[in-house]
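Notebook entry, structure prediction.
Reason for the run: the old model in the group folder had no record of what sequence produced it. Starting over properly, with the input documented here first.
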Amino acid sequence: MKKIIKLDKILIILAIVVQTIIFIIMGANKSYIHMDEAYSLGLASYDKVEIQNNEDFYNTWHNGEYYEDYLCVNDDETGEFSQVYENQKNDVHPPLYYLLLRIAMGFHKNSYSQWPGVIINIIIYIFVTIFMYLIIQKLLKGKPKYKEKSAFIAFLSSIILSSITNVVYIRMYALSTLNIVITTYLHMKLLEKDKIDYKLLFFIGLSALAGSLTHYYYLFYLVMMFIMFVIKYIKEKRYKELIAYFVTMCIAGVLSLIIFPYSIQHMFFGYRGQGAISNLTNISQFLTNICLYIYKINRHAFNGLLFIILIAMLGIVIYKKVKKQKIEIEKNKYIKYIAIPTLFYSVIIAIASPWIELRYIMPVCGLIFILILYLLYNLISNLVQGKKLDITMLIICIIIMITPIIFRMEPEEMFLDKRDIVNKLQNELNVPTIFMFNSNENRFLDDILLFSVLDESYVAKDVECTDENIQNIVKDKDLSNGLVIFINGGQENDDIMDKITKATGLTSWEWIKGLNACNVYYIK
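New structure, fully documented this time:
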């Protein structure tokens, strides 16, 4: 028995070491940032929500440090944390993640780096893997070598594409994932109790508090879990446990509102909350959104193999029906307490989220992954048993693990295709740069990283492209090596480029690259 426990610990430690190496490699290859990642860094460190709110932002030449200041903590900002709370009050999210990010950013000052955000997520995923391991253990308990199997599946759930994306994406979703898996595990423990366990209730309340201060979508998961336990206690007439559980959740809710009372404004009266409520009533989009999110889950939670797995499962069911044999599915008291909150969360997210984005579903991708594997395991056990069953599942897991390598499937938010433009503008074309900016399509933060590496840049807000205006902008600027132009949406790009070329006396222009929110050109 001691050898099994020791081997079990070795396997989970090895899993954490290997996944951490993978995460570090992925983090080192992260080549760009999404607008929301820029928001994460700015909201954690800057003195206002958006750098565009500065009075001197538009129609003025700036160096790279001006923009980089939004993405980093400077020496003179050491020890300042008030902006974390103030910015979240004025934005749409609770403050816990930003506080952690602000602390991490204090270890790398005066310049942008992806590492504070990525390292936080790497650390978080150590605990995600541990709690996933504990959850899987409870599902597989009683099976041969269930601890070793649990360690392997927990590791696999942490290196699927959605998990890697979760780690390299500098947002609060990795922390929200941890909140959800901790909440799940603690409720599985509560399920085993036949009397009040105040210590366990304390940690359940603490996890609920942390989750509500990380991301509001966490509450969808918690609410369904709460409803299920209330129903359970009422049906079993365990009213003392019901009262203790109910009071625990009420205390967590009250503490959350005391710490961050602006949650009410955000959820019910802010633009994001109003948008979510509006989406919840828009049933016509429901099926479309569900299908789009299933596609996301297929690619990122199962590395593109979900439909093959589902077809295989259906094939087993059909085969057993043809043979007129009963399909045996092991009853497990824990499954519904994972499956129902996960399904509820996924459906509500599909309706309420402002965009169809992987990030909104990432916190439950790992749970969806282990639920499908568990069901597959049970179905295959109707065909083979013992070592054959284990070998079959091992082959399936290995195929899932190596599929992204074979097909070169890139996790989201790595932005490997942006590496060339960053290097080109920083080293080869570091010349005066003008952003012809249409303020009706304001996504400047999508490109702030590029502006932070340029020596001279100018954001021309809603400026008419006339000879006089362009000549005034480039007055006293050295254009001997050319001029770089950014143009965002809603404008006549070719016409603008022709006019700027003529106004500057340069000879020709070429398109360099299309980015998420704009196009980049070079005039020479």
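Summary: The radius of gyration is 26 Å.
The old model has been moved to the deprecated folder.
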